[in-house]
C-alpha cells in the first residue's frame, strides 16, 4: 500500500506546492507522473535481485532508501530538486509494486489465490485515494512538507516491523538450510537463495511476456481501466475541484472517500467471490479453467467502470459553483469496477503461468505505470479541447477497445494460446536436451 500511498500523497496539496515552488498547478502534477514512470520501469531491476537474494533483503533495502528519499523531498528547496528526490524515492519504493504477486503465489494455494491476490491489489489501489484523504488534513494544518516527514516516519516503523516480523517467502530446495536457523541467522543471515548467476537477460525477462497473449491482454485490459477509473479521477479532483468549488487541501482530500468505498466494495466481488465462482465447475466434476474467472470482469467490472467514469465527467460539467456529491458517486462506481477488473485480470494471468508470478507482476506493473505516466500529460488537454461532456467518448471507446474486446478474445482463444505456448516450450526443451 505504501507504494501507491507515497505516489499519491501530495495530490491534495497541488495548489500549495505550486505556490511554494513557483510553478503552475499543472506542472505540479508532473511530480506524480514522474513517480509513476519510475515505478513502472524500476521493478525490472528488483525482480532478478529478489529472485537471487530473496524477498526480505530487497524489501528492507527498499524501506531504508525510501525513508531517505522522503527526507530529501521534505528538504528540497526547488521544483527540480523535489522532482529528482521523488524519482529516487520511486525507484526504491517500487519492489512492492511487482513482487506482491510473487509473494502471494509463494504463500497461498491456488484455491485461495483470488482472495489474497485481491488483498494485495486492493492495497495498491487503496493507497491512491487514501493518501490525499489523510494528508489533506496535514497539508491544511501544518504545511505540505510534513507529508514527506510523516512518510519517512512511517517507513522507519515499517522497516523495524519487517526486520523483526517479516519472513523470507522465496524458497529453493537446492539451497535450503538442512537445520532450523538460529535467532541470529534468522534476522541477520542474508544468503544467496538462487545459485544461478544473474544474467543481463534476467532484467528484461518480464518484458518478454508481451509475446504471451494471455498475459499482455490481461495486463492491457487492467491498465486501461486503471488509467480511467483511478489515475484520471484522483488527478482531476485536485485540479478541478479547488477552482470550481473553492475547496482547500483538507476538503480536496475528503473527496476521495467515494473511491475508497468503491474499491472496498469491488474487492468483495473481485477476490472472495471470484474464488467461490471458480469452485462452481467442481460441483459438476470438472476443473475450472483460468478463463472461467473472466466472466466476472463483464458482470461487474467493465460495466461499472464505464458507467462510473461517464457519471464523474458529466456531473462535474453539470455542476454549478456549489459543491455536490454526484461526481464522487461516479468516481466510487468507477473504483468498484476497477477493483473487480484488477483482481480478476492479475489473478487470471498468474493462474496461466503460476511459476512466473514475479515476472508477470513486473510486466503488469510496467504496462499499468507506463499508461498512468502518460495520462496526466494529455488529460487536461483532452478536457480543454473537448469539454467534460464530449470527453466521455474517449474512455468509453478505449475501455471497450482495449479491455472488453480483448477479454472476449481471451475467453475464446485463451486456452488454445496457452497450450500452444506450452507445446513450443516443451519442443525447445527437448531440442536443447
From TrEMBL:
Entry-linked Pfam families: MFS_1
Keyword set includes Ribonucleoprotein: no
Gene3D superfamilies: MFS general substrate transporter like domains
Leader sequence residues: none
Residues of the Major facilitator superfamily (MFS) profile domain: 1-415
Membrane topology: Multi-pass membrane protein
GO molecular function, one term: transmembrane transporter activity
PANTHER family hit by this protein: MAJOR FACILITATOR SUPERFAMILY, TRANSPORTER, PUTATIVE (AFU_ORTHOLOGUE AFUA_2G08910)-RELATED
Full protein name: Major facilitator superfamily transporter multidrug resistance
Annotated source species: Ophiocordyceps sinensis (strain Co18 / CGMCC 3.14243) (Yarsagumba caterpillar fungus)
